[in-house]
Design brief:
flat, binds zinc ion
Amino acid sequence: MRCQAGRGQAGHAGKKGGLDAAIAEEIEAEVERLIGAGVVDDFQAIETEARRVALRIMGQAVAHRLNADRSDDRGPWLSCACGGEARFAGRRPKTFTTAPGPLTLDRAWYRCDSCHTGFSPRDRALGMENTFLSPAALRMIGIAAARTGFEGSSALLRELAGLAVAPKTVERHAEALGREIAGDECRVRSSDRSTVRTASFCPSVRPSRSRCARISRRRPENASRNRRS
Ligand SMILES: [Zn+2]
């Protein structure tokens, strides 16, 4: 991974070297700030803070890399899901909750005058369309919510992963995940009664056969999501 220098990519390697040096310098400064010249008498505080700083620095590097890549600008027009043509409407920042922490991404934005909605090709590519949660953050919420209550999940995620999500956010997304899995289970049931997948993310919304009927009549999840950017 580090052996590209001297192979015709001096500019790229130079930038990478600069970034590596800047990250190393920031880490050294943070370690010095954490430990300093004093006696270490609270190692738990140091290791907790070290994790927070490491995640923040990695998050900054990921955001820097993604924001430097403007290939999500696909030109002045792009096909919309409604069948219309969406026009390029500039770049829009949006802050996402991700595993390393909050990341603000600068994304190309397209606006469709036919269905009056907008979309970001990058959000779609990253699996973060119509949400402010990254895939890893959403997975962590689902795992925590399957094992404890929404309040407990919020506290657990903050304590173990440094992830700041309110209990209401846990509730909303855990239930959405449960509905998706429940709908999936219903589809499997209707296509093959011998194979039933388990909705393990949120047992409280695991479907009964009567709920399957209600779920099948419900509008797709994306229909309500598309009103939000
Ligand atoms: Zn449209």
